[in-house]
Amino acid sequence: MKKATLIIAAFLFVLSNPIIAQSKKELRKQKEAKEYLKTKKLIESGVYTFIATSANTQKGRRIDLSTNYNSLKIDNAHVIADLPFFGFSQVSNFNSDGGIIFDIENTDFKIEYNDKKHKIIVKFVAKNKTESFDLLLTVYSNASAALSITSNQRDSMRYQGDVKEVSKEK
């Protein structure tokens, strides 16, 4: 009798395990969908900041940026970038600190929403006094993001970080 009870209990446990696993998977998908909608709403607002936590050079070197404040601020059509640059530059700018720095107005954004993969791609071109930058910001459902910058005068750079709401204080 004990053996039969154990076999039945084990059988019920095996049958219920996929149901629990499936509900965990469904909960994870629901959570990701909720995070994606929140992130999508933030991008649609047009006011957000990308905070870089690490940088990858074209040569594959990874640099931790978590102790420095490096950002790309987007306020509708106004974009301000202050990001470090690690790599080779074809043109020497003696009056520059070497970073990727620009402050531009009237930026034309191209935004693609991939609702199936819960991914948002923001593309735009920025120009400062001496060079042109092609920027591609890929934002994922949990607001983590990757920023790729290609310049006409420097090696390309890739930054990892997070997209956040702009703080209210100015």
Labels describing this entry:
alpha+beta, Lipocalin, 26% helix, elongated
Q: Overall pLDDT, averaged? A: 84
Q: How is the biggest beta sheet arranged?
A: 10 strands, antiparallel
Kindly state the percentage of residues in helix. Answer: 25-40%
CATH architecture assignment: Beta Barrel
Question: What is the level 1 CATH name?
Answer: Mainly Beta
CATH T-level fold name: Lipocalin
CA-based shape:
elongated
Low-pLDDT residue intervals, each spanning 5 or more residues:
none
* Structure classification: alpha+beta
Instruction: State the assembly state of the protein chains.
Output: single chain
Number of helices: 1
Instruction: Report Rg.
Output: 23 Å
The total domain count is 1
Sketch the topology as an H/E string, one letter per element: HEEEEEEEEEE
Estimate the strand proportion. Answer: 35-45%
Q: Could you tell me how far the N terminus lies from the C terminus, measured between alpha carbons in angstroms?
A: 75 Å
Structure summary, number of beta strands: 10
